[in-house]
Write a sequence for this structure.
């Protein structure tokens, strides 16, 4: 069946099986492989994207449920030359090691600072509860979100 | 993980959804936020032939409070409950449970009606709804019927919801002296033990209590012994409150698994209900 939705500002109409997950549509139909599949069981958050600005796990949503909605992926927030402040902060604060969780972590962090532009460390830890990182121990991720929140506020 | 293939239809409104349920019979399954159903479909524990998506039906979201009663649309997300000032003040037991459920992304998609209709024995809301003495409004082809939480949760993944009905709203009286205390499973986030308490206070004593557990038995249940023991206790009488919370899961066969034995769950029931009682006694 057909589904029409916007991804990073561009409207797409795809002919999909209803059982196709949103993350598969993004990765396999639209070649947006920045969104990762980690656990595939709604636990790890690697597949996090924004749906109408709100963080969701794209492995726990069928693509057809995105009809008429706007999806933002990691590819939609900045470019290599002009990184989003959140991307910049993950870089400067060493908020990643292997990088697998990073796109999902960044999308969750963007939702968090949209709702709470000046989060405390505790609020950041609560806000990224749905994202698992197996390298960093989270310390530098929390630092990165703190730095990015300040940068976004200063803008 | 790839679910078994299915047909997908979108319902425009409640009557449309009821028509689709009727047309597809046992083959049809309602999809709201999908955060219980989709994981089960991916594990192939569920394989409905037709998914009827009610997620975009207008008019089934929101929290209405008239000063005495609170009514919540079934499609209201956990995130909406978790950020509601009304609930924080007037039904903290539900507000706390919503905040402790899943994680931010799960709360953004999952719905209160979906979670209740699913009847998971480790889900948070069934205990909360039992403590609140909530009324579930079920809409079918012949109109609506109201059913109390005591008669709604029947067993493991089993509720009183008829396959051709839709849970459309949940209502309960304000409960400023209520609280939820949860022992999170460290991996899944589900309740190993969840204790929900609603107290009615009068003249420095507990006039009445409703106490319910999730995670412990095959379904959420009320701890009638604790309720009876709490009645009449002075709110400052810590020893009497301790005593009332002992053997909270008496008479229930507590479930055991690799994480927590039945004996441990039963012991933790006492600990967590005591914490919930203490929290419920704080001014709302």
């Amino acid at each position: 069946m057909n589904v029409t939705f916007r991804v990073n500002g561009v409207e797409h109409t795809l002919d999909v099986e209803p059982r196709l997950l949103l993350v598969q549509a993004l990765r396999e139909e639209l070649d947006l492989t920045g969104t990762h599949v980690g656990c595939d069981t709604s636990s790890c958050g690697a597949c996090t994207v924004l749906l109408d600005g709100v963080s969701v796990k794209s492995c726990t949503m069928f693509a057809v449920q995105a009809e008429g909605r706007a999806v933002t992926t990691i590819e939609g927030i900045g470019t290599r030359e002009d990184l989003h402040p959140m991307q910049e902060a993950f870089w400067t604060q060493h908020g990643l090691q292997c990088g697998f969780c990073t796109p999902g972590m960044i999308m969750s962090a963007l939702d968090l600072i949209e709702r709470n532009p000046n989060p405390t460390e505790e609020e950041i830890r609560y806000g990224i509860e749905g994202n698992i990182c197996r390298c960093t121990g989270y310390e530098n991720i929390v630092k990165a979100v703190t730095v990015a929140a300040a940068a976004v506020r200063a803008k | 993980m790839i679910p078994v293939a299915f047909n997908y239809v979108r319902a425009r409104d409640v009557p449309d959804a009821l028509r689709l349920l009727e047309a597809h019979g046992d083959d049809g399954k309602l999809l709201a936020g999908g955060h219980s159903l989709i994981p089960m479909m991916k594990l192939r524990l569920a394989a409905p032939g037709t998914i009827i998506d009610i997620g975009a039906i207008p008019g089934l979201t929101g929290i209405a409070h008239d000063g005495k009663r609170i009514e919540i649309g079934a499609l209201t997300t956990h995130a909406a409950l978790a950020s509601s000032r009304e609930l924080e003040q007037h039904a903290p037991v539900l507000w706390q449970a919503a905040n402790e459920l899943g994680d931010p992304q799960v709360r953004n998609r999952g719905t209160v009606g979906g979670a209740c209709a699913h009847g998971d024995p480790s889900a948070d809301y069934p205990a909360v709804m039992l403590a609140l003495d909530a009324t579930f409004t079920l809409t079918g082809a012949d109109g609506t019927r109201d059913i109390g939480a005591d008669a709604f949760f029947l067993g493991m993944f089993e509720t009183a919801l008829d396959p051709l009905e839709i849970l459309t709203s949940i209502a309960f009286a304000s409960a400023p002296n209520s609280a939820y205390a949860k022992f999170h499973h460290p991996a899944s986030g589900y309740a190993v033990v969840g204790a929900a308490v609603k107290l009615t206070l009068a003249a420095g004593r507990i006039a009445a209590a409703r106490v319910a557990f999730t995670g412990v038995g095959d379904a959420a249940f009320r701890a009638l012994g604790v309720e009876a023991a709490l009645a009449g206790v002075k709110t400052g009488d810590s020893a009497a409150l301790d005593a009332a919370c002992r053997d909270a899961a008496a008479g229930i066969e507590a479930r055991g698994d690799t994480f927590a034995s039945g004996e441990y769950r039963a012991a933790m029931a006492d600990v967590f209900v005591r914490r919930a009682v203490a929290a419920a006694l704080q001014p709302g």
Q: What stands out?
A: DSSP finds five helices and five strands in chain A.
